[in-house]
Design a protein that fits this description.
26% strand; seven-stranded mixed sheet; 136 residues; alpha/beta; disordered N terminus
Length: 136
C-alpha cells in the first residue's frame, strides 16, 4: 500500500488583506480583510502583524458584536494591549475599525470567512478600490 504525501500546511497562513492606495482624498473604506473565521482572538494578531508600519501601533479595534464571537475588553498582541469594542450599528456590520493614536483611523471591510473565492476576490477588489461601502 502506498501513501500519498500531503505538502505540509504553512504554520502561519497568508494574511488575506488588500489595502486601498493612500491618496490626498479620504476614502470611506481603507481596504478589505478576509479572515478565516469570526474568532477575533485568533484572527486579530495576524491582521495587526500584517498592517503597514506607517499605520503605527493599533490600540483600539471595533467590530460588529452580532457577527464576531464574544471578546474580552482587551487583549495582548505582540506585548501591546489592544482594546476591543463591539458595536451593533448597521453601518459597522461588515467592517472592522482600527485606531492608532496620533496616526489615524482605518476602516476595513470584512469579507465573510465562508465566502467563495470568486465572491471574496470581487469584494477584496472593491475594498482595495475604497468602494466597498457601495459594493456591500
Amino acid at each position: 500500500m502506498t501513501t500519498a504525501l500531503q505538502p505540509p500546511l504553512p504554520s502561519h497562513p497568508l494574511l488575506r488583506l488588500r489595502l486601498a492606495p493612500r491618496g490626498a482624498m479620504p476614502r470611506p473604506i481603507d481596504g478589505a480583510w478576509w479572515p478565516r473565521s469570526y474568532d477575533l482572538l485568533a484572527e486579530l494578531p495576524r491582521l495587526l502583524a500584517g498592517l503597514p508600519r506607517a499605520w503605527g501601533h493599533i490600540t483600539s479595534v471595533t467590530v460588529n458584536g452580532a457577527t464576531w464571537s464574544a471578546v474580552p475588553g482587551r487583549m495582548l498582541v505582540s506585548n501591546q494591549v489592544v482594546r476591543l469594542h463591539r458595536t451593533l450599528t448597521a453601518s459597522a456590520a461588515h467592517t472592522i475599525v482600527l485606531l492608532a493614536p496620533g496616526q489615524g483611523r482605518w476602516d476595513l471591510m470584512v469579507v465573510p470567512p465562508n465566502a467563495t473565492d470568486e465572491a471574496a476576490e470581487r469584494l477584496m477588489a472593491a475594498g482595495a478600490d475604497g468602494q466597498a461601502r457601495e459594493e456591500r
